[in-house]
Amino acid sequence: MADIQPSSRDFIRDIIDADLARGLPAHGVATRFPPEPNGYLHIGHAKSICLNFGIAREYGGTCNLRFDDTNPTKEEVEYVESIMEDVRWLGFSWDGLYYASDYFEQLYRWAEFLIEKGLAYVDDSPAEEISRMRGAPAMPGTPSPYRERPPRESLDLFRRMRAGEFPDGSRVLRARIDMASPNLNMRDPVLYRIRRATHHRTGDDWCIYPMYDFAHGQSDAIEGITHSICTLEFENHRPLYDWFLEALELPHRPRQIEFARLNLTYTMMSKRRLLELVREKIVSGWDDPRMPTISGLRRRGYTPEAIRTFADRIGVAKVNSTVDVAFLEFCLREDLNRKAPRVMAVLDPLKVTITNYPEDKTETFPAENNPEDPAAGTRLLPFGRTLYIEREDFHENPPRGFFRLSPGKEIRLKHAYYITCTGVVRDPATGDVTEVLCSYDPESRGGGTPDGRKVKGTSHWVSARHAVDAEVRLYDHLFTQPDPQNTPDNGDWKDLLNPASLQVLKNCKVEPGLREAAPGAKFQFLRQGYFCADLQDHRRDRPVFNRTVTLRDTWAKMQNRTRES
Ligand code: ATP
Ligand code: MG
What we know:
Bound molecules: adenosine-5'-triphosphate, magnesium ion
Oligomer: single chain
Helix content: 25-40%
Structural class: alpha/beta
């Protein structure tokens, strides 16, 4: 179970409190998370999950997982399974597991009930004609020529629609509401369409399928949902939601409440577009660590705690806005800083030979695993005559202010000795430095000297003889623009893809203990950032690490800047 701190107050919890104060609902607060299994869940869904499950937990109520599977052409079992896995991984467990398709028979009977009451009719008009007659908000729509069709005739046609007597798209069932309503959703919305498609659960049992609006509120009513929380784009569907419950004379009336969707900078959340990235192999799959999907974030090295904290802190609002992705990263760093063991990894290795250190000698240095967590203990780091340091930690002609290794300069090797650069070895062909020669001060063992002399630079390192070869994958934003989601819906949004969103480093050297890293294990590579062993590709004999997030805290910096200005 996730240890969620009580969430901050928001208008949804205020509504629930007011409902409870009025004595409602008798059976306790009941929410649901209703994904359509037409893709993998993303960080926006995580907000909805944390909200729905979080509220149920806080109020001692229940939260169902309900697959909103009314559109067979786009839905797949793979998505159903990934959604269950992601909800569990986030730390939640559902009370009931349902599918809108469980209610197809009931929904069908309710449709017949509406026809019998004169509140629904079969319309033979072509789809374009129906949408033309629906009109625009400023002007009343045009009633369909089939609007006054006698209920008996509609009932007969509707039954024959179900029996498969008519081709796809030839007829629909519409509610008979108000063709003059300023809300277009109320202008005789479609309830059923004919679509021959094999459903991932009901197979070929049905060739007519209910529309979202006809399924959602009724599913809520069947399950005894008290507060049906959804995103703002459903606000003007609410009158329809209520109309169905009323017209069907349902005893239980769930209440729909809308909140603002989460948008993140440099991130695209539309499932349709994410699917396009997967299909066109622009990313390696739904779980590509650059994807905003829960499975992508998991593989990137995100923790469920960081995502829950993020969801909680951004809160719930009535107005859409975009959250800086740097804030998500801030929540992640905060969590990883507490948990991730510190290790040394050299991403761009440069060989260092300590010429006055015995050839065959090895010694070990104790190193703290996590200064933030004394319980994390220490490990022993092997040290020898030949080491690797980060290439950027050496400069032959150091610019002003460069305090790391350069000819004649002394630095500290983290946890080990002071070393001084005494020379370099070059590639005879290119003249590039291929190796740095150093001497060490045996007195500086453990990082200090008897004379108390100070050095300005400290480098991380690994012993060449003990180092493990590793591949490291560095990630950056998938998009170059802060607001890619606002681009027009043609091919152009893909022009905003960041060509440098993935950089693969094949020749990294990491400390020997990392050979034992389990897939998914998280680390802070000293001075580099947080990394995790890749869930798919990491092997003991071929370690692969993903950079989860850099150490540089852009969010905290931005906060300071705002405070200073
Ligand atoms: P998308 O537009 O990304 O395809 P969707 O809304 O169609 O998403 P659903 O599977 O229908 O996806 O969503 C399940 C639930 O998650 C709904 O209640 C929906 O409102 C909520 N949800 C989806 N995206 C977000 C988001 N960005 N922020 C908050 N809640 C979201
Ligand atoms: Mg949807």
